[in-house]
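fyi for ur records
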Amino acid sequence: MEENWPVSGIFADLKSVLDSKGRDDVILVDTRTENAYLKGHIPGALYLGKGNMDAAFVLGDDLIRTRPAEELCKILGSKGISPKSEIVIYGDKGDAHATTVYWVLDLLGFPKI
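which gave:
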C-alpha cells in the first residue's frame, strides 16, 4: 500500500501544500466548520463553510443534495474560486466532507483539484 501513496493528482502531502502558499494560481480551501477554522488553519486558506455548517453543507441543500450548478458557481465565485485556479482542499482527519467538496468541484468541471 505504501508504494502507491500518494495517489498522483488527487492527494498532496503537507509539504507540497505549504510550498504552494503564495502562488497566485493556488487556492487553499478549508472545508471545516467556522469553529475549527478559527481555532487554526493554514494561513491564507479560504473558509468555505458558514457558521456551524462546514463546506459540504453550504454546497448542498437542506437534504444534503448538491445545489444547482448556477448556485454553486455563485457561492464559489464569491470566494474567488474559479476553474482557472488550482484548488487544494483540506479538512479534519476522517472527515468525508472534504471529499464532498472535491466531488462538487469535479462535477462542475474544475480541472485542477
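The first helix runs from residue 14 to 20. thats all i got for now
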